[in-house]
Amino acid sequence: MELLQSTKNKTQQKYVKDFITSFGFIVLPLTENIHHRASIYIEEYTLASGLRSGHALVAATAVENNMILVSSNVKHFKAIEDPKLKIFRPS
Questions:
Q1: What distance in Å separates the CA atoms of residue 45 and residue 58, rounded to the nearest whole number?
Q2: Distance separating alpha carbons of residues 53 and 85, to the nearest angstrom
Q3: What is the percent of the chain where pLDDT is above 90?
Q4: Domain boundaries, the chain
Q5: Residue 71 forms beta bridges with which residues?
Q6: Which residues on adjacent β-strands are paired with residue 68?
Q7: How far apart are alpha carbons 61 and 58 in whole angstroms?
Q8: What are the pLDDT digits (tens) for 46-79?
Q9: pTM assigned to the model
C-alpha cells in the first residue's frame, strides 16, 4: 500500500506492481492482530511523534510476522520500540 500510495499515475502504479512481482515479494494479509497492534501504535505514538496509519500498519505487520522492518526512512519508525529495525542506505 505504501509504495502504491506514492505513485502519481497509472504508469507508476504498473511499475510498482511489476517491481513487487518480479522480485517475488509476498503481500501479507491485513489480519485482526495486525489491525489491533497498529491501533495501539496510533494511540501511543501519534500525538508525540506524528505516526501515521500507514507506518503503524507496516510496523505492526513486521512485528506480528516476526520480521525485520527494513526502511531508509527511520524517522517514521523510531518512536515504536517493538519492531526489529534495519536501516536501508541506498548507495
A1: 14
A2: 18
A3: 54
A4: 1-29, 31-91
A5: 87
A6: 84
A7: 5
A8: 998 888 898 999 999 999 999 999 888 888 788 8
A9: 0.80
